Amino acid sequence: MEKMGATNSELEGLFEQKKRVKNPLVPIGAFITAGVLTAGLISFRMGNSQLGQHLMRARVVAQGATVALMVGTAYYYGEKL
Asked: Rounded to the nearest 5°, which phi and psi values hold at 21?
């Protein structure tokens, strides 16, 4: 009885067609975003709302930079492949 779906060699052939690019800065940006978010939530919990607001704004900037880095990397390497 035959198995349904592609075999391992067929799957490997599909993934070899596209070169994957790893960008080490994206996980770093994600960790920075998570760290700033955590610090902001802690400062809100401690009652320091002004610091919490500053940290939430910093989180938005860090998150935007991470997304921009992801999009820029995909665009840059997308044209070369």
From this structure: -115, 130
